[in-house]
# Entry
Amino acid sequence: MLDKIKSLSKDTLIYGTSTILGRFLNFLFVPIYTNLFLPGEFGVVANVYAYIAILNVFFTVGLESGYFKFASTLEVGNEKENFSHPFLGILLNSFFLSAILFIFSKDFSGIFQVDLKYESIIKWTALILFFDALSIVPFAFLRLKHKPVKFAVIRLVNIVLTVLLNVFFIVVLRKGIEYVFITNLIASGVTFLLLSPIVFENIKFSFNRRLVSELLRFSLPYIPAGISSNIIQVINRPIMTALTNEYTVGVFQASYRLGIFMMLFVSMFEFAWRPFFLQNAKEPDAKEIYSKVMTAFLAVAAIIFIFLTLFIDDIVAIPLPHKGHLVGKAYWAGLSIVPLILMSYVFYGIYINLMAGIYIEKKTKYLPYITGIAAVINVAANFILIPMLNMTGAAIATLLSYIAMTAGIYYASQKFYKINYEYSKIGTLILIMFLTYGVYFAVHSYDVLYLKILAFIILTGSIFVFKIINPKIFKQFSK
# Structure
């Protein structure tokens, strides 16, 4: 069992290296944008990317998940059919949707809450969505074939190219926010070109009726589930735009992006976790492995949460070489929401862990109900809490919806694929994180570095004191 967890850790580390390096370069956009764009302009960028996240679901129609399920088992069709059917389905669907968005960009400007002077942004968005959709199945292929290095290199090319083009157009040439999307489009196009050899090697023009039927039955529930999930992540921006102003949205978005460090960890885990649990589902000790993975995931997440929560004020104040800070001072008013965003990502990570049972037992039909209820909670909480608590209300709404998603997936997963998790350890870790949130306000008022360091040592040390992590495990992993 330890060997399998070590294998998962290795893949997570490789995916994580590319994700961390890539996202760190991507994070450089925050000081660039917050020091060069007004909060209102940054709010427009945040708003459009919120819609891009939602539209991605319509472009991919859940076929990435279908590919993972059936390509991992080949229970229906051969390897090339399992690649070609989801890829060609996404190609035809995304071409149709992109064409509509591109041709009728003026009409969509109002829906996107974008001024007509930024109409070109809608056109670039249509093309970004198209190329990103085409890259989904080839990237999934690399993950399933255990080629994390190639996956990582292509991802890094995308991010590095995006950063360099941003620096050239926005920092050097001082272009407007339209070039945020133009650089994204160029990077997305190059990424697909790098992945195209995989497409040509695996494409097969045939029609397997049974495979198409199984793919649709498994994948289509991901459309409403994906829409709901993305609503939870991004709907607060449009709602906040309607209830407050673009300045507030810009400040909120800058603080929300500081949750990137927890999102990095969750993302790198997710990349390795899905193929791992599918390929180990038939092992006799699979459920015990999954239980240990949950505890290990939460322990690492707790340490990250403690550090970021206590030191976020110091992190954003890091001076840049020439002028300004890591995050512009105009955006510091939103820092108090960062722990809530970090905690939201922790619960999303628990949700990803719990997805194993739903996947293995093919019970994806429950996902729309789980995420749908959470989305309704999110929208309702945003409308109730934003007028009362401003951007803090939006952050609380996000946390509440992720807790609801976690509760829903736990109920459904345990019903069909019961796993005996280490509940006492999990409860202790969550309690430590909530305690850290309270300590944040206590030490924040004094802003004394040694108090933060002391709090970090005590809170992190408690994870080992309560034997949630046994230090001896590190010796075993080093063998």
Q: What stands out?
A: The CA atoms of residues 59 and 94 lie 5 Å apart. Residues 1-21+221-479 form one domain. The two ends are 14 Å apart (CA to CA).
